[in-house]
Amino acid sequence: MEWVVWGALLIIMLALLAAFVVLPFASRPLPVLGSMPDFALTGQDNQNVTLSSLRGSVWIADVIFTRCAGQCPVMSARMQEIQDALPAASSVKLVSFTTDAEFDTPAVLKKYAARFSARDGQWIFLTGSKAALRHATVEGLKLSVVDKPPAQRDNAGDFFIHSQKMVVIDQTGGIRGYFDGDTAEGASRALAAAKTLARP
Questions:
Q1: What are the boundaries of each domain within the chain?
Q2: pLDDT band at residue 148, thresholds of 50, 70 and 90?
Q3: Helices 184-198 and 71-85 sit at what angle, rounded to 10 degrees?
């Protein structure tokens, strides 16, 4: 009988621990870490994309370039995993900014998007002038993007050093989280954050 009583007390203690320790962390709102500035860029379908056109949607952003042979395909594969985990009608969008303004035209980005089975309207690839892209990614998302000098390039496609982070942005352009964009765990956490923010 004593074992039953002690067992019941242990279960109650564990339940209290979950209620007072685990749940507050799980339900804690995501902090606002900054806000996106206005930008005007061009998508893979030659459409104009601005901060205003993304308002009302939660979106997950990263920076890549199509000639990248290293981390970019890995990051885009993680974004594809996120896309595949979302319903086609989800309000959550994916936005990939290129770092390679000169080479990555809308047509080039369209082919790259097809490589990762990007859904029209849900996963947007953006290009524009170098200044406009850096304004959105470096000044806005606070992600590092650096041109790599020719003498320091390891291969023919080694043009940039850039962040591997995914950034979750809320419906008003608020930056709500940074996650590892080249790992399954990071992608899973970014997806969970986006889904939480997208809930009515």
A1: 1-29, 31-198
A2: low
A3: 40
